[in-house]
Amino acid sequence: MKKTLSIFHLHNIALFALLFTTFFVYLNSLTHSFVWDDEILITHNRFIQNFQYLPDLFTQNLFKGGDSQSNFWRPFQLLTYLINYKLSELHPFGFHLFNTLLHSFVSFLVYLYLFLLFRRFEIAFLTSLIYSIHPIHTEAIAYISGRADSLASFFILLSLYFYILSTHAKTFRQSIGFYSLSFLCFPLALMSKEMAILLPLYMILTDVVTFQDQEKKSMFHLVGRYLPMLMLLAIYIILRKTTLDFSKIPLLEDNPVRHIPLLLRLLTFSRSVMGWMIHPVTHHLDLGYLGLLLFPINLHMERGMIYAKTLFEYPYLLSLNAFLILIIFTFYFYSKSKIKFFGLAFFIIALLPFSDIIPLNANMAEHWLYLPSIGIFLILSDIFVSTLKIKPHPIFRNFSKYTALTFMAIYLISLGTLTILRNKDWKNNISIWESTARFSDSSHLHGNLGVAYGRLKDFDRSKEEFLKAIQIQFNYPEVHNNLGLLHYHEGNFSQAEKEFNLALQFNPNYANAYSNLGDVLYLEGSIEEAKKMWKKAVEINPDHTEAKRKLGKIQ
Predict the structure, then answer these.
(1) Average pLDDT rounded to a whole number, residues 437-454
(2) HSE of 456, CA atoms in CB hemisphere, 13 A
(3) Does the predicted model carry a pTM greater than 0.70?
(4) What's 150-171 look like in SS3?
(5) How many CB atoms lie within 10 A of CB 11?
């Protein structure tokens, strides 16, 4: 009884400590505005503003309610936005509060999961503490649309927690009960983000680590644990390849990464994990994933490695060798250290969804480290705790101990400080894009900064950013459309028409450009031509409310 109470008290200490630290470092993000994709997913998303659209959350792509397109199907993410909207409408405070609370609970689940795995309070707690305050996670927490990562991680870790309880249950009834809860978490994770497809692999890894602590089970018994999960995964994959496949949308089919050979994508992935790059324009140091977790500097949202052009480029081969050594060390630690084996294996497995095996729209993102980072933080915690247990010469005993504790305190304070400072970048659209401009010079960045200035009525700076964007990438339809809108509001209809036509030249399925071109033609007196443009906009996007409203007015 005393042991049970002791563990219960330890869990309470961990929970309240993690709640405090998480809210302390993310407190300054609670008053921030909606930024970037928040506008599509929240402020302009009709699906989250009324329960009548509830079926659409489960049958349409993630961006559909904001009159945009994607191949993401994440109904549970949208459902949380709907709940947020019903509680606080379009006040960002409620959305930010949800994200911060969710992150604190994910941090606590990190602690519970690792505590059950290794029965080492100090390592489980230190890992979760580093996890809760590390600045690499700001992109998933301070940015409301980053919620998918923390939401999926919550259900993945909760499923793994119940799974371990089911394997250690004293009775068959308890085992079935805990396993059922673990199973129910799987579809919720899948409906939060696609990376949850690897949950069965995490379960296998969990069994590998805890195998000696369990009764010897037959292979049939072990496979029986995974079979229901694998069947559910098969159903999910079939649905995503049929009914819930949104990749056939013309806008999404034109992904240039598809044309890069798989081997070159994987070679680039190895550099994203183990390497670094000096940015060709801004000349700053861009670290790979492992470097960012150890030294979280130069954080920004336009991260990416230049794709390898051949299989024999020196920096990529160097990174590939380092990655292969990491894998070799993983197997080496299998018999030497459970914790280090698990940490490296978890890190590598959790990165697989972002390895570009299936072409993605980017090859690096800080929020993709939300789940994989657990493995590296676990190893750091193990190294620190092991350092405290080293027995030096009696003269240096206290000095060694206090030095290690001081170092860890400075490290934790530094992480928390960097998180608080990084949160400031996410305050509004201007701050996030201007902070990113210190590390990137992409057309995408200047295009978004132009939109942000335009909404502040600073049209001169807006036009300046748009022109920078098309200098870098002339075939950028969204920027030409936005330049057209600037000319339209200035009364320069001929130049506006030219820009809208350029937007359509580069994207013939651009509904907004058709609608805007219709507006110009209408004001120039070409009523029938304007109707054709509006009809084309509705044909491409049947939910285009503006084009439908204009057609209704003149018919």
Answers:
(1) 88
(2) 14
(3) yes
(4) HHHHHHHHHHHHHHHHHHHCCC
(5) 16
